[in-house]
Amino acid sequence: MRLHPAATLLVPYYSIEDCNVASYDIPKGTTIFINAWGIARDSKYWDEPEVFNPERMCPAYNLGLKLVKATLANLLHGFNWKLPDNLKPEDVDMEEEYGLTTHRKLLLTIRCADHSVKPLDEWQLKCSFTDFLKSSFSLTVPEDDIVVRRFKDLKKRKRDDPVTHGVLFIRDLGFLSKFSRSKILHGIDGEDNVKELEKKFLGWRRLVVGKTDGIELNLEGVKFRLTASVPESDDFGMTKEWEKLNAFGNRGL
């Protein structure tokens, strides 16, 4: 921090009256910049100013202590921690001694818990996914239209198996509203309208599946990759082919 300060110049100051500093006359209303880089390397105040010596006084000592606390707090917040070798918290010696004594040396190892075996927060998953649908496709999907099915025992899950799986129901197809139902059912070009409607729907569905497949959802600082596909039973094209085949089958062809 002394040799390489984050800001070479400190926050500007403003003189409210005429003054004299180190034989320099500073008129009222002057903007003053403090050269932190020059002060930290001034040989008048530092022996061998270009040499890093951790034993000398550190101007950023208090800042360093705060950063250590902030870093530790982020680690505790972002992960689940557990003691090794089935060690219980009450077995850890946390007694303190007063006086000029050396701190007790304690060999303590802490291992980060695996989030893949942590129960997934269904509410956070739905909120994160609905936010994605709204920002990407302008779709407002109720939470009840996202059905999530979890693994009964995540510890028995294979490495490549998904943490959870589910179904998304999109019931609001308002983008198709420009095609009037009466024209489709009773219009002169009703069959053409139906084909155009089907083409538009299938194109939109491919876009949604393609853009959704492979996205990452951030839940409590842990990223989960989501894969999306259309079930064969819900494939519109396959259903039509099956209906045609079934119809010909009934005729004995």
TrEMBL record:
SUPFAM superfamilies: Cytochrome P450
Pfam family, one: p450
UniProt keyword Transmembrane, yes or no: no
GO MF annotations in UniProt: heme binding; iron ion binding; monooxygenase activity; oxidoreductase activity, acting on paired donors, with incorporation or reduction of molecular oxygen
Listed cofactors: heme
UniProt keyword terms in alphabetical order: Heme, Iron, Metal-binding, Monooxygenase, Oxidoreductase
Family label: Belongs to the cytochrome P450 family.
Record PANTHER family: CYTOCHROME P450 71A1-LIKE (PTHR47944:SF5), CYTOCHROME P450 98A9 (PTHR47944)
Designated name of the protein: Uncharacterized protein
